[in-house]
Write a structure and sequence with these properties.
Structural class: alpha/beta
Radius of gyration: 15 Å
Distance between the termini: 24 Å
Strand order of the largest sheet: 3-2-1-4-5
CATH class: Alpha Beta
Order of helices and strands: EHHEHEHHEHEHHH
CATH topology: Rossmann fold
Largest sheet: 5 strands, parallel
Helix content: 40-55%
């Protein structure tokens, strides 16, 4: 088990990158974790939105393409590659926002979080303030980040009382 958050390798799906980019907060991923990886498919999906992947995000291809192809029947291409790469990597935290993909990854022993978890970790490390965290979440929701009002409000309340 890594001793520090910075020792963890983050493998992210596209949704986290897009949501944080749209909120002008993608840099909190790097400031919080330092070692960030995506798969070629995630890079492609991210750049299709018109952004260029920052140089601090490393692109790594999963080895087990047969497993990736099997997962693509259940999940998106980026999620499938990210799950397989995470399973092939040590000291990893997989960032997925889709609940089905997260549950699958957790069921096969991968430590998972979502975009909101990244924001919370940045807040806990004083990379962003509670107000910046709330602003970021609000901007993300206004830009189409899919989260229910109840979950968002519960999460904000949790951050305020943590």
């Amino acid at each position: 088990m890594p001793e520090k958050v910075e020792d963890i390798i983050i493998i992210s799906d596209t949704s986290c990158l897009i949501a944080l980019t749209n909120a002008h907060k993608l840099d909190i991923v790097y400031k919080t974790y330092k070692n960030v990886q995506v798969t070629p498919e995630v890079k492609k999906e991210y750049e299709e939105k018109g952004d260029i992947l920052p140089s601090w995000i490393n692109v790594k291809e999963p080895n087990n393409t047969e497993w990736v192809n099997k997962l693509k029947t259940e999940f998106g291409s980026g999620e499938s590659e990210a799950i397989v790469l995470a399973k092939e990597t040590e000291n990893v935290l997989l960032v997925l926002d889709d609940s089905r993909a997260r549950n699958y990854a957790a069921d096969i022993g991968i430590k998972v979080t979502g975009t909101m978890g990244i924001i919370d970790e940045a807040r806990k490390k004083d990379i962003i303030t509670i107000d910046e965290a709330i602003d970021t979440l609000t901007i993300m929701k206004n830009n189409g980040f899919r989260v229910s009002d109840k979950l968002l409000n519960d999460f904000i309340e949790y951050m305020r009382t943590d």
